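Handout, page 2. Input:
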Amino acid sequence: MKWTSALAIYLLFWAFSAFFVLPFHGRRAEDDATPLVRGQEPGAPASFRPARILLQMTILATIGFVVYYVAYVNGWADPDVFTGRV
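Output:
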């Protein structure tokens, strides 16, 4: 596998990891003790920590990519297996 292909696959894993990480973050603003500001969405997070979210996304994407790469190197993720041309 070329390094550019590996990078593209890793970036896909990283982008998709947001769908797994984001639902577990933050108390809603309406659950927090601070009053809502006019125009504020009650379901919005009370405190948003992007660095923490990005770190968790990176960890999850790295684990997923390593599992994929091991499967690729060992031939378990061979495209011919999935298309039935074996």
